[in-house]
Amino acid sequence: MGNIHGDWPECSRKQKERNFMNEMADIAIIGGSGIYDTNMLDKVRTVDIDTPFGKPSDSITIGEHGDKNVCFLPRHGTGHRISPSELNSRANIFALKKLGVRRIIAVSAVGSLKKELAPLDIVIPDQIYDRTRSRPSTFFEDGIVAHIGFADPFCPEMSSSFVDIARSKGYSVKEGGTYVCMEGPQFSTRAESRVYQSLGFDIIGMTAIPEAKLAREAEICYSMIATVTDYDVWSEEDVTIEKVIENAVRNEAAVKDIIVEAIEKISLQQKCMCKNALAGAITTSHEVISYETRRKLDLLIGKYLEK
Hints:
Order of helices and strands: EHEEEEHEEEHEEHEHEHHH
């Protein structure tokens, strides 16, 4: 098991870092424990990573699939023990950046706000509406400001690939749509659900924000496979956690099927806007950025700062 900590003796730290460099990944999957298993990967191992923002949700599993290294992070931790509002998304995304990840496949169970998007359907959203209130959503603080572009929150390259794969396999998939991200962990009130529906939103969930924002700041491509489990509470049938879990489990095979082919087909060469999202975005004068902040964020900003 690999492990990187910041307070070891120098010789021990260097050895640990050499070991850690052997644990790199090209593609990351963020999802629930039921969405992923390791039987699609060879040479499976786990790494335990520290970040300047604390520990990620859990240890990260890494394995090989063909010529690509793939890692998996259980968003809510093993046993689904972390509430959406308590997720340390900054640590999660920073840890994946530390592993060298260039593409993130996010898997999320969602409620439908449209009759035509039925439970067990798949949505590849292209927009997000943020209704969260209490989640740290940027790496840039402590004397540094960066204004990234976020007009298109999901990577169009990856999303297009997911749609093509899902259709080729005969799954019921919607291309595009707006994901409204609520705070949670409670489900919506009827008033909220009906307002979201009247605004034309398509699906509702609790986890796309701040994951997508932080991935963009980290210059990692991020796209989502959203699986519909219910009709939220605007319909006659109320949403229950039992129904959500039941339909999420029923969706597992389809999601795994899409992910396996996506890993095989996705190019690691980023040709989209994601890979250079920070270019020109750092507005703070470089000379006033403190040494501590530079050191903390070097993985993200080092290439953009004057040496």
